[in-house]
Amino acid sequence: DETRTRVLVPESAHGTNPATAALLGYKVDAIPATKEGRVDLEAFKSKLGPDVAAIMLTNPNTCGLFERDIVKIADAVHEAGAYFYCDGANFNAIVGRVRPGDLGVDAMHINLHKTFSTPHGGGGPGAGPVVFSEALAPFAPLPYVVHGDDGFRLVETEGEAEADGTTPFGRMTAFHGQMGMFVRALAYMLSHGSDGLRQVAEDAVLNANYVLASLKGDLSAPFEGPCMHEALFDDRFLKGTGVETLDFAKAMIDEGYHPMTMYFPLVVHGAMLIEPTETESKQAVDLFIATLKDLARAAKSNDKDRFTGAPYMSPRRRLDETGAARKPVLRWAPPAPAQAAE
């Protein structure tokens, strides 16, 4: 339908969602969040119309919160004749506990990003299956996988698709993705089983809430909680210290920790997004919490030098990020040969 030119994207969605819609030529219409960090349902409904093609929503969202109105959102989208795409990057919080299809989702990319033991980032761009509802499945590009009475089956050709009663809109050029991540994810699923995967989500959510509850008195949380798989903090606790989110993160490197996601989501100023996942023990999480408490106390005690020059003990010191952005070196060039003296 060429009249549907608009895609709705909540402010709390991942940035790849509006970027994808814009790349495909759609007009992106942002949906504001409530003061609780979730989609404003009334604002969303007011934006629906015959020109809306879809909503692209992340659930749990990037504030680490489950969208409580997700079924109402799905129903309203479908009533308007549009489709519901759900970003699956935060699937680790609900795996084994929630079936996205029951929520009204039409398409979901279960990208291996924290889920099924995969490192944050997925080991490559967009590795993971895309699953569809009955409404969209007939148009899935080749090759695709279907599940029937005899288990899983790969449909590779147009003839097989025709026999299957589908009309694929094309063929994927890089179907197999990041095979190393797939193999490890499969091993993780088989070793845990369905009950173990349910516990994965429970432990990931438990660890994140433990971090949130333990640090609330030292850091500042923009939303009360409880959270899902990630604990979100802002930079209010650093006000008046001369220390910024970036400084705080760099100081974590000197303590032996890779910094958390910084300045995202954009709806929170100076955001620090901590995702402990299910694999960290209580001992490891306790040590991490104690380290952040110590850093927060140091920042509030005017120990500014500990932060503004950090990291001090890493193989490489802090980069000039402003200079790198303004004068990027995009390729390596061999040094000019030495000139003989005249």
Written overview of the protein:
The protein has 342 residues and is α/β, with parallel strands linked by helices. It folds into 2 domains: 6-181, Aspartate Aminotransferase, domain 2; 194-312, Aspartate Aminotransferase, domain 1. 31% of the residues lie in helices and 13% in strands. The protein is built from 9 helices and 11 strands. It has helices at residues 16-23, 41-47, 70-79, 158-163, 179-215, 245-254, 282-300, 305-308, 321-326, and strands at 6-10, 27-31, 52-58, 83-87, 107-109, 130-132, 144-148, 151-155, 231-233, 261-262, 272-274. The strands form 3 sheets. The chain has a 6-stranded mixed beta sheet, with helices on both faces. The protein has a 3-stranded antiparallel beta sheet with strand order 9-11-10. It has a two-stranded antiparallel sheet with strand order 7-8. Strand 1 (6-10), helix 1 (16-23) and strand 2 (27-31) form a beta-alpha-beta unit. It is globular and about 70 Å long. The mean pLDDT is 92.
Offer a concise description of the structure.
With 342 residues, this protein is an alpha/beta fold. Helices cover 31% and strands 13% of the residues.
